[in-house]
Automatic annotation (TrEMBL):
Species name: Kosakonia cowanii JCM 10956 = DSM 18146
UniProt-listed SMART domains: HTH_LACI
Record's keyword annotation contains Transcription: yes
The HTH lacI-type domain, residue ranges: 5-59
Pfam families per record: LacI, Peripla_BP_3
Signal peptide start-end: none
Protein name: LacI family transcriptional regulator
Keywords from the named record: DNA-binding, Repressor, Transcription, Transcription regulation
Keyword DNA-binding: yes
GO molecular function: DNA-binding transcription factor activity; transcription cis-regulatory region binding
Highest taxon, organism lineage: Bacteria
Length: 357
């Protein structure tokens, strides 16, 4: 539906004139508040507002560089869904989207240059590429380029990513607010983003005047799989040095949370009656062993849409300052975390809800 038809449709639905609708959508002040509210509500319903915000994307060919695993949902569901969100954000536009696999580090610079210097390449998105040489080449080539979930240490390229540090801090603080003081963290630290998350967790401990002991309070897992997490958590629980389980596990991934719950159940520990489990992830699992999972959802689908918006800004204002856009997480309060009151280890489950982190 083109612009004129949508204005006519909004006018018909709101019983207002097309000129009034046009004035509201153009941001003019000479309309009543009632008319303005009605037009904007209808425009949102019809998807007009999104079109106004995005405008016409000023390119027709875009290439996405990402690690090979990003193109396989079973290998990396997070990056795979980010790529799908880029696809979805480009649907309203006449854009040909191409892909190229690059290693996170020690990337093939010749392959990158060949793709970037191709006549059909007008702009690029780099997803999860940490190679600083690639970042330098992208900046030197001068074509619009946006980074997703990676950073340019020389600050020449704009980037967008989850605010990993704040997300980690927020998740740990939620458990502290629920009365937990004996918390063990289960993490895979294979990338600096997880180091940022751990730094946030440690900051939350410090705010509670608690000393974080990595040997006691951190279980590291080589991958994000449930199997590896179950093995490492089982080893921790069976270690004679850990005579009693913690009141809560904070796990950096839903599949790792699944493994953590499995290890607990195998030892006769119930979730959340005996031990609470909280996850930090992109809502891959809503429940584990029929227990609704309390989690801080990491932005995932939003990354692609916001990256396209950021790319549009670079096309319109190529000389504008570059910076990093960090997205907040969202807390999903379900039933895998119980509140601990002074002197108790088992109490009522917190209520359901969603909150911005």
């Amino acid at each position: 539906m083109d612009k004129k038809l949508k204005i006519s449709e909004i006018a018909r639905r709101t019983n207002l004139s097309t000129s009034t609708v046009s004035r509201v959508l153009a941001g003019k002040a000479n309309t009543s508040e009632k008319a303005r509210a009605a037009v904007l509500a209808c425009a949102r319903e019809l998807g007009v507002m999104e079109g106004i915000a995005a405008g016409r994307l000023l390119l027709n060919n875009l290439i996405v560089f990402a690690p090979q695993r990003a193109f396989d949902e079973r290998s990396d569901i997070f990056y795979y869904r980010v790529i799908q969100s880029i696809n979805k954000a480009l649907e309203p536009h006449d854009v040909r989207l191409r892909y190229c696999a690059l290693e996170e580090l020690d990337s093939d610079a010749n392959e990158f240059l060949a793709r970037m210097n191709a006549a059909e390449t007008q702009a690029a998105i780099l997803l999860g590429i940490d190679d600083t040489h690639i970042h330098e080449l992208a900046a030197d080539i001068g074509k619009p380029c946006v980074l997703i979930n990676c950073r340019d240490g020389r600050m020449r390229l704009p980037s967008i990513a989850p605010d990993h540090r704040t997300i980690g801090e927020f998740a740990a603080r939620y458990l502290f607010d629920m009365g937990h003081r004996d918390v063990v963290n289960v993490m895979c630290l294979r990338r600096y983003t997880m180091d940022l998350r751990l730094a946030g967790i440690k900051a939350a401990w410090q705010q509670q005047n608690l000393r974080f002991n990595s040997k006691r309070d951190l279980i590291t897992v080589p991958s994000f799989s449930a199997k590896e997490a179950a093995l490492r958590v089982a080893e921790w629980l069976d270690d004679p040095a850990n005579k009693t389980p913690p009141t809560a596990f904070l796990v950096s991934g839903d599949f790792m949370a699944q493994g953590t719950v499995q290890a607990l159940l195998q030892r006769g520990l119930r979730v959340p009656q005996d031990v609470s489990v909280m996850s930090i992830d992109a809502f891959n699992l809503a429940a584990i062993q029929d227990v609704p999972l309390t989690a801080v959802h990491v932005p995932r689908d939003e990354l692609g849409a916001e990256a396209v918006q950021l790319l549009q800004q670079r096309l319109i204002r190529p000389q504008a300052p570059t910076g990093s856009l960090l997205l907040n997480g969202t807390l999903a309060v379900r039933e895998s975390v119980r509140r601990i009151r002074p002197g108790q280890r088992r109490t009522a489950v917190a209520g359901d809800g969603l909150y911005d982190a």
